[in-house]
Specification:
It is built from eight helices and seven strands. It has 203 residues and is of the alpha/beta class.
């Protein structure tokens, strides 16, 4: 099929979605072409969501504009000195399902990946530093990036970047999360155990 046709262009946009291959993207494109009544609700929903949400001013989690800081950062019961670092918002949802974490989060917005031209400057690492550097409290930072090459590289960079901050202790998820695993696809029980048995990351 000609890549410049309207259907191909639409399919290409759908293929950018996580987990959507070219064939599925093409089926989705044809669905909307054949069911034009569904296009207006889709456009309206997308427009509404972008008007209604923004990043949490503390942790970068997507939240509603009238609920900023997000519900986790605003929760008076949660331990604000226990910060779990994750790649994206879906990782937060997975960890919350485990019912084992009562701290707060920091969303990086990706992982360091030289092959994709993503460096530490593209991530929310400086804002993490600002959360703890001028604070008298003692913090534990749980690094919960995925156990992939990019996740490990990001984990090591964060540890080195913040190593001179005296009031910060580091830990890393362990037990049951093998190398190459992705938090988004790990069951909540395994995530819960990994949090409970996290390892000291200071040495």
């Amino acid at each position: 099929m000609d890549e410049n046709t309207p259907i191909s262009i639409l399919a290409k946009e759908f293929s950018k979605l996580p987990g959507i291959g070219n064939k599925t993207a093409l089926r989705m494109a044809y669905f909307y072409v054949q069911n034009k009544n569904n296009i207006t609700p889709l456009i309206s929903s997308l427009d509404n969501i972008y008007r209604s949400v923004e990043k949490c001013k503390i942790c970068n989690l997507i939240t509603y504009k009238d609920s900023n800081p997000c519900k986790y950062c605003a929760d008076g019961i949660r331990n604000k000195q226990l910060i779990c670092i994750v790649e994206n918002d879906t990782d937060v949802a997975q960890i919350e399902k485990s019912n084992s974490f009562k701290g707060v989060y920091h969303i990086l917005g990706g992982l360091i990946s030289p092959l994709s031209n993503i460096s530490h400057n593209d991530l929310e690492i400086e804002s993490l530093k600002n959360r703890v550097i001028n604070n008298d409290d003692n913090f534990e930072i749980i690094i919960a990036t995925n156990f992939t090459t990019e996740g490990e590289a990001t984990s090591l960079f964060i540890r080195q970047y913040l190593k001179d901050i005296r009031n910060v202790k580091f830990s890393r998820l362990a037990n049951g999360l093998p190398f190459g695993s992705n938090l988004e696809y790990v069951d909540s029980y395994t995530i819960g155990k990994a949090i409970e048995r996290r390892i000291d990351y200071d040495n």
